[in-house]
Amino acid sequence: MTLDSLNRHRLFPWLASVLTALFHIAIFPKLQLSWLAFVSLTPLLLLLKTETRRRLFLFGFVCGFLFDLGNLYWIYFVIQHYSSVHPVLCIGILFLLCLLLGFFWALFLYLAGLLRDQAGLSRALFVAPFLWVLLEWTRGYVTQFPWCLFGYSQSNHLRIAQFASFAGVFGLSWLLVAWNAALVTFIVLRKRLFLAAIATILLSIAIYGHFRIQMPVGDRSSKIGVVQGNVPQDVKLDYSFGESIHRKHLAMTMDLVERAKPEIVFWSEAATLFPLRDGGIWTKQIGELASVNRIPIVLGSDTFTGEEVFNSAYLVNESGQIQGQYDKVYLVPFGEFVPLKKIFFFAGKMVPEISDFTAGTNFEPFVIKGEKVSVNICFEVVFPQLSREFCMRGATLLATITNDAWFGRTAAPYQHFAMATMRSIENRRYMVRAANTGISGFVDPYGRILQETELFVPAGITGDVRFVNEKTFYTRFGDWIVYLSMFVCAAAFLARTKQVRR
Question: What is the pLDDT of residue 9?
Fold first, then answer.
């Protein structure tokens, strides 16, 4: 059977959609078959040769829905285990989210088909990488949920991943789509130039990455400690355990200090079940722990100010005083707040467990022993612009504190950790990660995982990190490739529209 006859078979579009979805599920943790990313989009792009725009929309939608269902299945686990929502309704919520996210896949294939009809298949495939980046960015902007973007699949391919220090995670997405589109150009049109050009770019990136990751980064080093308390989420939701959780963190910190003598210690997000500023004797004990050992402690705690509640990170300095406070800027939709309350007015009543936090507005890093340290809280680490903003403000070390106990043993903790490593690569900074139930660890500026803990075990670990002052091209200029994509897509459609009108 020839490619043309296969492509015209009535079952081929369905097979292509399912195959692309399965490949995209496989390229992310836990499976992490990231090499599949270089062919994962090819089956879907082959549909551009024969399918109408309406059918392209349909098959793009099917593919996107199936991918997000397989990639985000853990959302059902979270809602079903930690809310009063009926399991059937939990499935409905997951399906609705996947339907929304699947729309962007459908729009990608539809617009590529529109450009194909206006300017030809070759032009459509050339613009496809820019169109993907633009829609990927738009999806994150609209939904505030930029989870598992295509480029994150390469977080473990360190030589290729160094391209992120130039163009960010969106640049890696562009590279992967460009390679898939070039393959289709060669397979369908027998044109070699596009494939040769992308192969040259890819090889150049790999060679650069090979030599770059061998270069030392940073000057002054420091031994950092991380305490992974391993408090189950069911326990965290019960404030009667506040005393035992508090004592556990104090004891684990003392043990870590005596064993390894770290210079700074990090606890996880919401490590205290009491507001740090109003914790009375418990707050005093944390201050004494810091002052007696002359060691700053960074920890997570809620902050109550009038009617507002913030998810905060605090710096308790070596004198035992609260020196800094950072309030989480990017909140979890339908977890920490209800977006568009006038539209989703029913959500708070339907899921009473939704917290009503207020977003922070301060982007200043903590100053610890003369160095500026940024602290992302949980979900925030998936927003590249936030870590970049901290680095532009002088942060020489990235840190993230999180509570991934919500996710259980699903793929989510592994996905979350993989995305965090990309922030190190983009900005060429060491990263410290303190997670309540794991994965805690240390990442170097090239994305190498220097140390990581197991899930659901108590752990106190230390790692040597360096403070880095340099600014990468990405740190300086941000998501320039998104703006380039806007220009290329606008030019491609408008130029052809103008020509058609003639």
Answer: 66
